[in-house]
Design brief:
Rossmann fold; N-(1-d-carboxylethyl)-l-norvaline Dehydrogenase, domain 2; 2 domains; eight-stranded mixed sheet; 11 helices
Amino acid sequence: MRIAILGLGQAGQLYAADLITLEWKVSGFDPAPVPAPSGLRRAPSVAEAVAGAELILSLTGGMFATAVAAQAAETIAPGACYADFNSASPADKREIERAFAATEAVVADVAVLAPVPRRRAATPLLASGPGATRVAEALRPIGAPVDVLDEPVGAAAGRRLLRSVFMKGLAATVLEAVSAGAAAGCEQWIRDQIAGELGPNGAAVVDRLIDGTHEHADRRRHEMQACRAYLDELDSPASVCDATLEWLDRLAAHAAPPAPVAAPTAPAPPAPVAARI
């Protein structure tokens, strides 16, 4: 199979490396000078990476997803499947699908349901849209649990965002409790209390929630903004989203802003786009 991966951050590199071991022909694009797995054909543009590919995985980050899809639509092959793996809103996913309306390609809305580093290309997925079955057929044989929704593009994204309200809200709750514990001089005590409630691996979960939120605050901020917009669309209360966004705004303010994954008119390549999923 010929596959293209757009975005070579942590998730993109892991997917590429695993698919190359299956002897798939893998091309990839990222405008930043990030490392690429051995065996990947590095393309100089989105359009050139996509040309001739049967399956395209977009792992660019939600804030860049629609712009990258528009570029991919220029050269996508008839019958190819464009699978958007980004944490974007249902409205953005539908806009991505519209980018391919004049092509003969199919689009899959794919929600990633666990951190990719844990199981790499075997990460659990939820997919909807016309290309959902194609994604399942490609990735199930390598161990990925792929649940297919008989629903349009946007359905998988909506469910992923509902999950994110809980997961990112949990991370914000842990951050707030541990920060207050540090101020009170009992940080380890509150960490142990939280870990005990989270099960046998609770201490590792606490560390992962805190470290991951600090490391990916800006990307998660964009994801929570999408959650907030989706809950507004549902006319559902969004107090947890608002509180989580406060924490992410505070953390992101101390981090350098990410550069666009695709900026074809820029004279020089932007800085690396880090682990996006």
